[in-house]
């Protein structure tokens, strides 16, 4: 079992030659100190040897993935199902008895008596209301429907996918620890396919299918809601903050599902699908509810299984791109579901699913039995986590997100998108040979950092061609060079209901540039877990190199490292809500990332402390990954600086202002505007950036009205933030980002 109690004091230490001596990190890539390297590049041969030693283990790890829908591997949906239960009891409840258990519990009775007395409602009426709420929430189980769904998933999967690849070794590792305590499965969430895959895989490996938290939008779908409920879904309202009775009854059902039921529980800690394909800030509401039986002492422990789901091509990809640009998603409906079945004529490549090392909550929190509160008999409406427990849950939630991201498989198209973007921003075209070489180089870099990459070196050109074919709606080869696939005339001419738009109505010219570039960026974003901090460090090195050129005082090696670390910490704080990489391993990761930049001859740190940065292909790729986010934050602040200090505005009004401002820049002749990327139009990321500015005190938001205004707090000056962001943008080796896409879009629209 993985037990992750972190040492925050050690993590906060400033860098030195032994920066991470007290930080425990498992990855071998993190077991190296930065070498004192002169301009001779002495560490390069050592790096090559380390990579050679690492490659077999990376390849061996990927060999653990088994295609469970390959011919001969398929699960029999008619076989007897005798699964391993998550939590073993002498006597097991069925779904109906679970509901009765909740309804008859002393805790629920005390809740109902409390509300009856408070509202003056007869107790019998409160009981009827409680029964109706539990019937709305509660899961059911019908093996015939589960088997039928399994047959359908196998058939559709074989038609649209190149395989469902599951890490059999990690699944076996999870299974061996089951039975002793409740189990929570917490997958990453990029697609509606996530919970379908989880149930299918549990059936395949003879593990009890967990109860799955689903939103009420599925409940209202004719036929679909019933089918999902009978396969193990339990339903929750998206928002019930004003309905305290519903909140308390849902919490009691969740309490019983964890403490008294045997199947395990699955939910998405991010709360919703990530439309930008990177981790979201964890929501701790459901996790707190699920851990309440542990804090009350009713269960001895809780086993948490982080699950990483990766898609070569996400089913909802195009839908997400349009949503990011402000086009609202269609309402979930049965008709919409069957309409979506047209995807069976498309290819979506491979799907990968990996299970993280199980986390023991008891060990993670460092508890012994005496430290846990014995409050199981307290009225349900009084059972709430205290401030210290909430803080522990937040730390656990961050660790879960961290473990999810570490095991997400990086595909050939992820690396191809990143490499192509770096060349595109430098106004260069790319051939198949150049792509193959670039992808292989990136594979080595990512594996050095500890990532799992699906690319096969022996068939690299075939892999690249196949990846482009799968994503032919985004990219294609023309005259031997890679370029964007133009949007269809029907898409450009499509009329959008302006009243339903989330922000500004973008013109067809802007859409023609933004749609392909946002789609490309979505597949770069999974790489940001690995590249965000190396990019911070590279920008820090560029900044320090310039500072050293302008100063005459002596420089020392340790002082240079401390300066680099300070810059990285500043950027970490700025982007902490954008890239969820908080793990209390900052010190060790600083060492790893510095070593990478030294190995790749991007950065040199001489014994004197003098820093030199080389402008090469590796530096371009790393900076290209971060550039769209820097541009977005910069353009947001530029927009805010134009708003009068006394003016109040809503979130939507701000989004409209930013999109209008960015569209004007993108439409300048020849796309000549600097520091603007079409990704600056992405609403989800703008909302994250706005939230970050609120959290850091640059914006003030009214709790009552939701209106915002620019803060007048001392030390929170938007002009200084704009200057800081502009400085980072100017350190980038790229002038414009959308020139090629803009030229291609103009040519395509003129042809139409």
Automatic annotation (TrEMBL):
EC numbers: 2.3.1.42
Query: Which stretches does UniProt call biased (Low complexity)?
Result: 37-47
Compartments in which it is found: Peroxisome membrane
Q: In which pathway does it act?
A: Lipid metabolism; Membrane lipid metabolism; glycerophospholipid metabolism
Domain Phospholipid/glycerol acyltransferase residue range list: 183-312
Question: What membrane topology does the annotation report for this chain?
Answer: Peripheral membrane protein
The reply to whether Cell division figures as a keyword in the UniProt entry is no
Q: Example GO molecular function term?
A: glycerol-3-phosphate O-acyltransferase activity
Which SUPFAM superfamilies does the entry link to?
A: Glycerol-3-phosphate (1)-acyltransferase (SSF69593)
Q: Which PANTHER family match?
A: DIHYDROXYACETONE PHOSPHATE ACYLTRANSFERASE, GLYCEROL-3-PHOSPHATE ACYLTRANSFERASE
Q: What does this protein do?
A: Dihydroxyacetonephosphate acyltransferase catalyzing the first step in the biosynthesis of plasmalogens, a subset of phospholipids that differ from other glycerolipids by having an alkyl chain attached through a vinyl ether linkage at the sn-1 position of the glycerol backbone, and which unique physical properties have an impact on various aspects of cell signaling and membrane biology.
In Swiss-Prot or TrEMBL terms, this protein is called Dihydroxyacetone phosphate acyltransferase
Q: What is the lineage of its organism?
A: Eukaryota, Metazoa, Ecdysozoa, Arthropoda, Hexapoda
